[in-house]
Amino acid sequence: MNISFKNNHSKNAIFQTLSNNEYRLFYIENGKNIRLKNDEAKEKKSLLENSGFHIQEVDSNYLIIERGLDLQTHLRFPGQDHKETLEGGLSSAFHGGYDSLVAMPNTSPFLDNPALLKSTVEKQASAGQNIIRVGQTAAATIDMKGEVVTDIALLKEAGAIAITDDGWGVARDDIQDEVFKRCAENNLLFMQHAEMPGHGGFATASDFQKKFEIPEYPNHVESDMVKRDVELLRKHPKARYHVLHVTTKKSVEAIREAKKEGLNITAEVSPHHLMFCNENIPDYNGNNKDIVNNFKMNPPLYGPEDRQALREALKDGTLDCLSTDHAPHDFDSKDKFWSEAAFGTRGLCTALSTLTTLCADGVLAYEMVEYYFSKRPREILSADGFKEARGYIILNKSTKWTVQKDDLPGKSKNSIFLGTELKGRIEGILTTDGYWQDSL
Ligand SMILES: [Zn+2]
User: CA-CA distance, 427 to 417, in Å (whole number)?
Assistant: First the structure.
């Protein structure tokens, strides 16, 4: 794993002086994050220094938050090494500021049986060492076909942390009803990729979509499934329903209503849907197919109005948190005409900087970044071993950087953020094992 500690020192702390003469001290004790303020921070700093601690001093230009949890990562493990290695995915999570991630089950083969799930969980734990924790989801239906519900009790026993058919929505009402029932019985979060199937679309209505005559991806397929799920959820008050990568105003409105009603529903937004819309898709120029196709993902980018609704929904709490839907691909899968190219963009290494860019632009508040990136995803998952962050991120708010392929660890380079200037960059990470500093 490509993680090195420049200051390989077991005793580390961060001391921050804020502009209004306030102080903060951050360190880890017995695996737990400790955060002190003002006089307490100053007193403890002297004590730590006397006992041989390395103290990293930073000013108010820095945002110090706990390390994050990503609720939606495609690790491509097992079976898809040609897209990304397990180490590449874990290293991307580390460099992006995460200490934990939740991996999707649409691997090769799909994770729908307890034996394969168990061996996968064991291999991930050993690859992540003590640095990145992986929570593995299991499929909701056999072969992720939406026809036969998996043995959710046995999958839980084998280590499943949540249930999802991500990549596809569970279309049949009777099957979704049974999934809610079994998830509730086993107290496992159910995560829906909300998309009613059969629409045949690959891009939402835009000048780009019309120019290249790409079949249209309609605006209602996501909210149709969310509304159907909400109806079923009323019958299962103990089920926990989470909507993955929300993209439209219609879905936001349905989620807002369901929350008002008091239903057990949570929802996330991805960095690319917060940052981009379908007007940002670049034109093909003859040799940039891979770059253009980084704007192709499922669910797709809609127009500026939908993007605006997502931003407002994150601010008002209708959308709970940020999740990456990190989806690595090999070059060849993206180097095709739009309709044939693979869906998905990377996201782990740029997610936090996406949030701070939106803060710098006045769209979001810096005070909320830790909640969206770490605290709220942990509450939603509510799984043992993932409830508390281990370590802190030191991010320089004033650093501007333009994302290049070299900034992305791992095999895959398919990031929609390539060439985009972001505001705010991670400079250091404090873990239970040491203090890491450098940009890769
Ligand atoms: Zn999905």
Answer: 19
Beta-sheet pairing, 392-402 with 62-66: antiparallel
CATH class belonging to 67-424: alpha beta
pLDDT tens-digit readout, 383-397:
999 999 999 999 999
- Alpha-carbon distance 5 to 127, whole Å? 17
Residue 146 to residue 110: CA distance in whole angstroms: 13
Give the Å distance between the CA of 298 and the centre of ligand 1.
Answer: 6
Please tell me which residue, 377 or 428, carries the higher pLDDT value: 377
Structure tokens at 297: 């993902």
Q: Please answer whether residues 236 and 181 qualify as being in contact, where contact means their C-beta atoms are separated by less than 8 angstroms.
A: yes
For the question of whether the overall pTM of this predicted structure is more than 0.85, the answer is yes
pLDDT computed for residue 438 by the predictor: 57
* Distance (Å, whole) CA 115 – CA 120: 9
The full set of domain ranges for the chain reads 12-63+429-434, 67-424
Q: What are phi and psi of 394, to 5 degrees?
A: -110, 110
State the distance between the two ends of the chain, measured CA to CA, in whole angstroms.
Answer: 12
For 281-305, give the DSSP string. PPPP-SS-HHHHHTT--SS----HH
Alpha-carbon separation of residue 326 from 277, 297, 298, 404 (angstroms): 18, 10, 12, 17
Catalytic hit among 325, 330, 407, 433: 325
- CA of 327 relative to ligand 1 center, distance in Å: 9
Residue type, 99: D
Mark the residues whose beta carbon lies below 5 A from ion ligand 1: 166, 193
Q: Tell me how far the alpha carbon of residue 115 lies from the centroid of ligand 1, in angstroms.
A: 24
167 alpha carbon – ligand 1 mean position (Å): 4
Cα of 188 vs centre of ligand 1, distance in Å, is: 18
Phi, psi torsion values for 259, nearest 5 degrees: -70, -40
- 290 a catalytic residue: no
Q: What is the pLDDT of residues 302-355, one digit of tens each?
A: 999 999 999 999 999 999 999 999 999 999 999 999 999 999 999 999 999 999
Residue 320 · residue 310 · CB < 8 Å: no
